[in-house]
Amino acid sequence: MIGLIRGQVAVVTDKTVIIDCAGVGWELTCASAVLRSLEVGSETTLYCEVRASEKDLSLIGFATLTAREIFRKLRAAPGVGTAHALSLLDSFSEQSLVGYILAGDADALTAAPGIGKKRGEQIIAAVKENFAELENLPAQDETSSGRRINPTLRGEAHKALLALGYTSAQAERALLQTAPQVLTAESSLEAQTEAQTNSQTDSQTDSQTDSGNPVALWVRAALQELSP
Length: 228
What we know:
Layout: E1 4-12, E2 16-21, E3 24-30, H1 32-36, E4 43-52, E5 57-62, H2 65-75, H3 82-91, H4 94-103, H5 106-109, H6 117-131, H7 151-163, H8 168-195, H9 202-209, H10 214-226
Parallel strand pairs: 3-5
Antiparallel strand pairs: 1-2, 1-4, 2-3, 4-5
């Protein structure tokens, strides 16, 4: 089994990359976002998935192990081919995609080319249970201490931004830029919660409800990032 290829980028097309590894050119199919990050002549490392059929043997390349694991779980769903799985990975961050599936949000998945609501519902029904374990995989939204944002939280924030009229790409970019702010705010809120006593009045608790909502905090931070 081929799990990883490291070498020099020789050729990049709209769907594949050829990596020169010790004089052997390995051709891998990748998501568009991965291909855009590659430059001819540069060194790269891609994690691999081998897909075999009666007529073809192909390699799929991924920038992270998390992306490969998501791909494997998506391909296990009935009717989901390589193109559908890569489309989903290309349309959302890994954390948002996991969040949407765990939240059962088929409408959000329709932002990916080739994924209608019915297919999105079928994918969620088939893989939701298995996706729960992905919350423990390495995440992109981490602090230096290793703390990360729950993918379900990211999915809810992304959904809120789409409802406000922003595109999926705009939402993803804003959420990525503001993730450190949200982690810092969450840490502060947790510290405040630990310091609270049972003598708090109902009015005090109510006044903190909105400011203590992590989804609302992230959406507000993202809106500021999106403002001209």
